[in-house]
Specification:
The complex is a heterotrimer of chains A (about 160), B (about 425) and C (about 700).
Chain A lengths: L4 H10 L12 H12 L4 H11 L3 H10 L11 E6 L2 H5 L2 H12 L5 E2 L5 E6 L11 E3 L2 E3 L4 H14 L1
Parallel strand pairs in A: 1-3
Antiparallel strand pairs in A: 1-4, 2-3, 4-5
Helix pairs in contact in A: 2-3, 3-4
Chain B lengths: L28 H6 L4 H8 L2 H10 L12 H7 L8 E7 L9 H7 L1 H15 L1 E8 L4 H16 L4 E4 L4 E9 L9 H8 L23 E5 H13 L1 H7 L7 E8 L5 E6 L2 E2 H8 L9 E5 L8 E2 L6 E2 L1 H6 L8 E6 L4 H15 L5 H21 L2 H14 L7 H15 L1 H14 L1
Parallel strand pairs in B: 1-2, 1-5, 2-4, 6-12
Antiparallel strand pairs in B: 3-4, 6-7, 8-11, 9-10, 9-12
Helix pairs in contact in B: 2-6, 2-9, 3-4, 3-6, 5-6, 6-9, 9-10, 13-14, 13-16, 14-15, 14-16, 14-17, 15-16
Chain C lengths: L3 E6 L2 E6 L4 H7 L23 E4 L6 E2 L10 E3 L3 H16 L15 H9 L16 E2 L4 E3 L9 H9 L5 E4 L6 E4 L12 H5 L5 E3 L12 E6 L8 E7 L2 E6 L13 H5 L14 E4 L2 E4 L2 H17 L4 E4 L6 H14 L5 E2 L6 H7 L10 H6 L2 E5 L3 H4 L1 H14 L2 E6 L9 E6 L5 H6 L2 H5 L3 E6 L5 H13 L3 E6 L6 H6 L11 H6 L5 E5 L15 E6 L11 E4 L8 E4 L4 E5 L11 H12 L8 H11 L7 H6 L2 E2 L32 H5 L18
Parallel strand pairs in C: 1-5, 16-17, 16-23, 18-19, 18-21, 19-20, 21-22, 23-24, 24-25
Antiparallel strand pairs in C: 1-2, 3-4, 3-5, 6-7, 7-10, 8-9, 11-12, 12-13, 14-15, 14-25, 26-27, 27-28
Helix pairs in contact in C: 7-18, 8-18, 8-19
Classes of the chains: A alpha+beta (about 160), B alpha/beta (about 425), C alpha/beta (about 700).
Bound molecules: flavin mononucleotide, iron/sulfur cluster and FE2/S2 (inorganic) cluster (FES).
């Protein structure tokens, strides 16, 4: 399995960052970046990462199951994450999430038929003082109202 | 142009650690250097490691990650003469609900944190550091990488830091979504490429941490406070706060306030003043119901308990904690059953599953609260919530169990009336 | 001598080694501290929190499984707080447990059941929906029922640390955490079932045993595995003369918690449909069943006449029959038939090693030495495949004592994962390869050298000379293949005094009688003599039996009493578990043939024959009392041993084969082969 030149370069650097013989340390970040490119953590990817980090596929598999951002199934092109944890909850986070469900017509960890959007109710993502917050892929959006969310989503729909 | 701030600063702030926030180009090395950047490092280079650690002790700086452990003392535990190389790890996992300050420190002033790390490197004779950043903060990993590259390019990292001959390498390391990986030993397992399962202590990270090497681990804000402490002296920093509670800290005010935001306030700052003046009071003139003083893991305070100065010791006396600086304000309309449920949903989702009481307890409590919230509550559930929480408290492998139990115990004990309301409503329906 | 500390537990004054774990100290002093995840052989977890105790001057309860004892410690394991804590843990534990004990294989021998009974609350306050996942089959022999799992991680550890395979891991987190196999939905492993034995509950169950019976309906017979030469104890669960399971949960044998796929499952040959249950005679129409009396009459008649006219006998003994049987057979041949043409399939060069070591004391390693020696050198053998228990011992030694492991082999071996040095050689280059380790080995405190059939004759003498030259205490293990290969040699089933070797017998055109007991020599070699009258005693119609004139149905090791000697020369008792209709033990067959022939070779009862062995066989003067309690090492080194004719060759069995028995064990044929990835040299359990 090979990745884009940029990713290969990143991985090459990654594997030299840690003390000698500790390539296992690269497992988590490698999976994070690789899944962005591959679209999901596939069996093939697990075996590839295991090979590169010199661990058994099981040792990678265990990690994939543990971290909530690692996913075995592809998500939408735009992954909409709505926080409903306490700070957001108090200022309409849950209502915002309900709105997002209706707007996208999908539920928690589901993807729209056209594969453009997926939705996830997430835990606190560090935007408490600017709540309610939404993260789309890796972009934060603060003080999000239902109207603002609609604009965001419609904007992305147009974009492609 | 200057990075746009997420919230307007308050005139009541004491801006030490956040002094560069809002300055145009504050994230660049040049601007940092133009604003006393690396004065502290050069000063520290002339000091003995012991002296550096003494200075940090004098500042009475306490860990900003949540546990509030005296930083100078922690540094003194690291065996700087051990034959094993020492490692510095920055805890930038910032996942405690209510907390959003480390983000700003890395976004607006990455070089301040880097300088803090370098000074720690001098103090414990470490030459490599890793910044463990939660996966959701990908944009920050990129910002940190950019800052690190700039520092290397301009000679502030690498073989010869600031021309002093000191060598130091610094890297970012991405998490992948796990609150538990903020717990220092789970973080170490995570950085080693494993599931984030906490470790047995002893050995403590200072002795055998990442890859079994002596490891100094601190929070982003803790490192970011170091340059000021060395530059202006530990005493000056300490003087900003109250005895044994030195300096300032970034308080993340959220919830029912007119001007939520992250504000740098000296320790000992009155809580009510923070709510009413710094954060502009409660919207719609509503009354205060409760405050979560330092992140979701802290026992909650009823309104009448909130007329206190915000420092570690006072909050401990009040039966709570200053925690991670995540201050959540709840007005009179807040439904505490729903609030408790949301908190437990979080801990059930984040329990690593290693030990029985936390793994099973959090989920059980969540299910009871869920049932209660859906109108299927039973009177005995109220006392059971408290009892089950107490069966977890102090008996789990790591502090996550306590973090789940403490707020729950305080809510059922201090806001029983909210649960009663549910039961009453049910009776009406029957 | 480590320093001693004084502490009190539940008011009892106790002295203990400083730093020892509280849970151990308490238990050694008869104070119960419950636990699930604690296991003395494997890494500490402190996960189940059942062992919480109260320690004076510490605010929180502490886990006994990771707390070292210290001077002046005051501990309570019986206070109300502690009792309440245990109750609470069990209540938590049972929230998602299905409580399906009535249909659970573990019912009746389940640690969770016992704990709930002893420390539990009785009724549960949990009224919510339980988390459910369906049961999975991971291999022909391993099933996993996640809801029953209490996540004590014993299975993960025994597989990773103990077996060195690392086929089990944990996926997901929180309440849906689950034990997972190494290949998506199935296991690729040794199929040893250690995970099943060590599982305190019914989460991991055996495909061979599940739903067959209830533990209390079985009789449990502890005997010795009849497959490889390591001599593991296996406890056979028997119901109506049928073996239903093999396990090792009581860990009472030399093998501690170890048992391989053969010891655990490969008892099924005993009830294979092709099992011989009547004597057979060859006629024009092929083989016809005949009565025992007829068979014995024909055999003894022919033996007597051939003996009378001074004809030529050839007697081939077995690697699987008991010491008593081997001894009696050798005696029968020499005294009864007047021939020295006695031999068996020799799989290791014991003659040379005994001769080369003659005069030395304490030069032969026991299985325990492999666990306790400072260093272990494996030469020309794949232990994980052919001597899984010795391999386990070496790993345990590495784990517990940080022993230095060395491997000199033709290909990668599992030992590479722990080895300080692995040397790869061409076949025949083993001893030269060992030379390259001289300096390292010199520096070792003491050393056990384990070598395979690749090292024999002069090469073996060179190896011993090398050992002598190191100037440290060296012990040896000469690997042999089967459950009593060592016994066959010690009992003198050998062509001493000018007798013909196995190969020579088969090649002799003038052989009059070929008597084969529990062996299959004609599988690979032809029988030269056309007139030879062939008698075969065996369990099945082997290639050899198919050329016999008379075939006598023999009892297997699980169907007889007696003793066997393992690869390290440790004698152990076999206990009869079942009786298979129509069969006789080989000893009984010998005795009755002798009786028919009017020979006086002594009483053919195992105990009586063993008495004679004790008196006459070098190094076997072991006390029956000791033997009754467990394995007893023999001391066969005794003067020079004359070289023997004939060849020595291991049959190269794997973890999943057992010589001629292989085709008759369904289980062995069903399980998957251990994958090569186990030998990658960076598998789990690897150094660092
Ligand atoms: C469940 C749990 C989660 C934690 N999460 C964080 C975190 O996100 N960031 C952090 O800095 N410390 C976190 N901590 C505290 C760390 O364990 C550790 O005390 C701290 O990072 C040490 O740095 P400091 O002394 O500078 O505060 C957490 C602790 C627990 C028990
Ligand atoms: S399967 Fe059994 S041994 Fe493994 S963790 Fe679960 S309960 Fe423990
Ligand atoms: S035995 Fe101590 S926690 Fe399990």
């Amino acid at each position: 399995m090979t990745f884009s030149p940029q990713l290969e370069e990143r991985f090459a650097k990654m594997l030299t960052r840690y003390p000698d013989g500790r390539t296992r340390s690269a497992v988590v970040p490698m999976l994070m970046y690789a899944q962005d490119e591959v679209g999901a953590v596939t069996r093939e990817l697990i075996e590839e990462v295991a090979r590169r980090c010199k661990v058994t596929p099981l040792q990678v598999d265990e990690v994939v199951g543990y971290y909530s951002m690692l996913h075995r199934k592809p998500q939408g092109k735009y992954h909409v994450q709505v926080c409903t944890n306490i700070s957001c909850l108090l200022v309409g986070g849950e209502e915002l999430y309900e709105h997002a469900k209706k707007k996208l017509g999908v539920g928690h960890k589901q993807t729209t038929a056209d594969g453009q959007f997926s939705l996830e109710e997430v835990e606190c993502m560090g935007a408490c003082s600017w709540a309610p917050a939404v993260e789309i892929n890796y972009d934060f959006h603060h003080f999000v109202t239902p109207e603002k969310l609609d604009q965001l989503i419609d904007g992305l729909r147009k974009a492609h | 142009m200057a990075k746009q701030l997420y919230n307007q600063p308050s005139p009541l702030e004491t801006r030490v650690v956040s002094k560069n926030f809002g300055i145009e180009g504050s994230e660049t090395l040049d601007v940092y250097l133009a604003n006393d950047g690396y004065k502290a490092f050069r000063k520290a280079k002339e000091m003995t490691p012991e002296a550096i650690i003494e200075e940090v002790k004098t500042s009475s700086l306490r860990g900003r990650g949540g546990a509030g452990f005296p930083t100078g003392l922690k540094w003194s535990f690291v065996p700087r003469t051990s034959p094993k190389p020492r490692v510095i790890v920055v805890n930038a996992d910032e996942s405690e609900p209510g907390t959003c300050k480390d983000r700003l420190l890395m976004e607006y002033d990455p070089h301040q944190m880097i300088e803090g790390i370098l000074i720690a490197g001098l103090a414990v004779d470490a030459h490599v550091g890793y910044i463990y950043i939660r996966g959701e903060y990908r944009y920050l990993i990129d910002e940190m990488d950019r800052a690190i590259d700039e520092a290397y390019a301009k000679g502030y990292l690498g073989k010869n830091v600031a021309g002093t001959g000191f060598q130091f390498d610094l890297y970012t390391h991405s998490g992948a979504g796990a609150y538990e990986c903020g717990e220092e030993t789970a973080l170490l397992d995570s950085i080693e490429g494993k599931r984030g399962i906490p470790r047995m202590k002893p050995p403590f990270p200072a002795v055998a941490g990442a890859w079994a090497l002596p490891t100094l681990l601190n929070n982003v804000e803790t490192f970011s406070a170091i340059p000021a402490i060395i530059r202006d002296g530990g005493a000056a920093f300490a003087a900003l706060g109250t005895p044994k509670n030195g300096g300032t800290r970034l308080v993340c005010i959220s919830g029912h306030v007119n001007k939520p935001g992250v504000y740098e306030l000296p320790l000992g700052f009155p809580m009510m003043k923070a709510i009413n003046e710094v954060a502009g009071g409660i919207p719609g003139g509503k009354k205060l119901k409760a405050v979560v003083p330092g992140g979701s893991s802290c026992p909650i305070l009823r309104a009448e308990e909130c007329d206190i100065p915000m420092d570690y010791d006072t909050l401990a006396k009040a039966g709570s904690m200053l925690g991670s600086g995540g201050m959540v304000v709840l007005d009179e309309t807040t439904d505490m059953v729903r609030f408790a449920l949301r908190i437990m949903k979080f801990y059930a989702h984040e329990s690593c599953g290693w030990c029985i009481p936390c793994r099973e307890g959090t989920t059980w409590l969540k299910k009871i609260l869920q049932r209660f919230y859906e109108g299927q509550g039973r009177r005995e559930d109220i006392s059971m919530l408290g009892e089950l929480s107490k069966n977890m408290l102090g008996r789990t492998f790591c502090a996550l169990g306590d973090a789940a139990a403490l707020p729950t115990i305080s809510i059922v004990e201090k806001f029983t009336e909210d649960f009663e309301v549910y039961l009453a409503r049910q009776e009406v329906l029957v | 001598m480590a320093d001693i500390v004084k502490l009190t537990i539940d008011g009892k004054e106790i002295q203990a080694e400083k730093g020892k774990l509280l849970i151990e100290v308490a238990r050694q002093n008869g104070i119960e501290v419950p636990s699930f995840c604690y296991h003395e052989d494997y890494t500490l977890q402190a996960a189940c929190r059942m062992c919480l105790v109260e320690i004076e001057k510490t605010p929180k309860l502490q886990v006994g499984c990771t707390t070292p004892v210290a001077e002046g410690m005051v501990v309570r394991t019986d206070s109300d707080v502690v009792k309440k804590a245990r109750k609470g843990m069990l209540e938590f534990l049972l929230t998602n447990h299905p409580l399906d004990c009535p249909v659970c294989d573990k019912g009746g021998e389940c640690e969770l059941q016992d704990m709930a009974f002893r420390y539990g609350a009785g009724e549960s306050r949990f009224v919510e929906r339980k988390h459910h996942v369906d049961e999975k089959q991971w291999s022909p022999v391993v099933y996993f029922d996640a809801p029953r799992c209490i996540l004590c991680y014993r299975c993960v550890r025994v597989c990773n640390e103990g077996i060195g395979v690392g086929a089990l891991g944990v996926s997901n987190r929180g309440v849906i955490s689950e034990i997972v196999p190494n290949h998506d939905d199935h296991l690729e492993c040794d199929e040893c079932g250690a995970c099943i034995d060590i599982c305190p509950v019914g989460a991991l169950t055996s495909g061979a045993y599940r739903y067959q019976t209830r533990p209390w309906e079985m009789e449990h017979v502890g005997t010795i595995c009849t497959h490889c030469a390591d001599g593991c104890k296996t406890t056979l669960g028997v119901r109506n003369d049928e073996i239903i399971r093999g396990n090792n949960r009581d860990r009472s044998g030399i093998n501690n918690e170890f048992l391989c796929v053969k010891g655990r499952y490969a008892f099924d040959f005993t009830k294979h449909p092709e099992r011989l249950q009547s004597p057979m005679m060859r006629t024009e129409k092929g083989y016809e069943p005949i009565s025992w009396s007829k068979a014995l009459e024909v055999v003894s008649g022919r033996f007597a006449s051939v003996k009378a006219r001074g004809g030529k006998f050839g007697v081939i003994g077995s690697n699987h029959t008991t010491n008593e049987e081997n001894f009696f057979l050798a005696k029968f041949a020499r005294q009864g038939l007047g021939t020295n043409n006695v031999d068996h399939h020799r799989t290791g060069d014991l003659a040379t090693v005994f001769d080369a070591l003659s005069g030395k004391t304490n030069a032969l390693a026991t299985t325990d030495d492999v666990y306790s020696a400072k260093a272990v050198l494996v030469v020309g053998a794949d232990l994980a495949q052919q001597h899984p228990f010795l391999s386990f011992q070496a790993r345990a030694n590495f784990r517990h004592h940080n022993a230095h492991i060395y491997a000199v082999t033709t290909g990668p071996v599992r030992e590479d994962n722990q080895a300080v040095a692995s040397v790869r050689v061409q076949k025949g280059g083993e001893v030269a390869g060992v030379e390259s380790l001289r300096d390292k080995l010199k520096a070792e405190g003491d050393l056990v050298i384990v070598f395979g059939d690749a090292v024999q004759g002069d090469a073996l003498r060179k190896l011993v000379a090398f050992g002598d030259s190191l100037g440290i205490h060296v012990k040896y293990v000469c690997l042999v293949d089967y459950s009593n290969s060592r016994g066959a040699f010690d009992m003198g089933v050998l062509p001493h005094d000018g007798g013909l070797s196995r190969e020579q017998m088969l090649a002799a055109t003038d052989l009059d009688v070929l008597w084969v007991v529990g062996s299959n020599p004609l599988k690979h070699n032809p029988l030269a003599s056309k007139q030879a009258f062939v008698v075969v005693q065996d369990l099945f119609m082997t290639e050899t039996a198919k050329q016999a004139d008379i075939v006598l149905p023999a009892a297997s090791a699980y169907e007889k009493n007696g003793t066997v000697t393992n690869v390290c020369g440790e004698v152990q008792r076999l206990k009869q578990a079942i009786k298979v209709m129509g069969t006789k033990t080989d000893l009984e067959i010998f005795g009755q043939i002798a009786k028919e022939m009017g020979l006086h070779l002594g009483i053919w009862l195992p105990d009586k024959v063993f008495e004679e062995i004790r008196k006459t066989v070098h190094g076997y003067g072991v006390s029956p009392a000791l033997l009754a309690m467990g394995p007893v090492p023999t001391m066969p080194l005794n003067g020079r041993v004359a070289a023997l004719p004939g060849m020595i060759q291991s049959s190269g069995d794997t973890l999943f084969t057992s010589g001629s028995l292989t085709p008759y064990s369904e289980i062995l044929n069903n399980v998957m082969e251990a994958p090569g990835s186990l030998y990658s040299g960076q598998g789990p359990g690897a150094r660092g």
